[in-house]
Amino acid sequence: MTDTPFERRHNTCRDRKILARTFPACFVMPKTAAQKKPLRIGIEYAIERAGVVDDKGHEFTMVRIKLAVADYCAGRRYQEGIIREDVRIDLDGSPTGEVTAEHEAHARDRLLAMDAKRDAALNRVYDQRPVRDEVAA
To answer: Can you give the CATH number for the domain in which 20 is found?
Structure first.
């Protein structure tokens, strides 16, 4: 049986929380104001080697790991972290590499795309609002 989009999103969010509990020096909890730092390239493989298990004792598969890490990295705060920070971090929070100019430029492009998408959605909302007739004074 396949999961619904809602179930997949819920499962990914749950997996992100498990990663944040397991590796607090690397991941921040969802829906918190903490700043995200750039993760090392290929961190999925380090997570797999660490053998993370969920609350039911099931070991994370590479698919679950990749979905959780992709979701973690997709947001605005992570992209801002790529621009703000010079160093990438490993699971224990130690520096493991540098943020390249190419990655920083990609993060800036992603932020611009996010802004454009948000602005387009707001414009659609405002365009659909009924126009009120001005009342004569």
So the answer is: 1.10.1710.10
This prediction's pTM: 0.80
- Summarised one tens digit per residue, pLDDT across range 65-124 is 999 999 999 999 999 999 999 999 999 999 999 999 999 999 999 999 999 988 888 887
DSSP state, residue 75: S
Which helix (H) or strand (E) element contains residue 127? helix 101-128
Angle at 9 between CA 21 and CA 45, to 5 degrees: 50
Q: Please, what's the largest Cα pairwise distance for the chain?
A: 73
Element (H, E) at 104: helix 101-128
Residue 135 lies in a domain: no
Q: What is the rounded CA–CA span in Å between residue 58 and residue 15?
A: 11
| Dist. CA 24–CA 30, nearest whole Å | 12
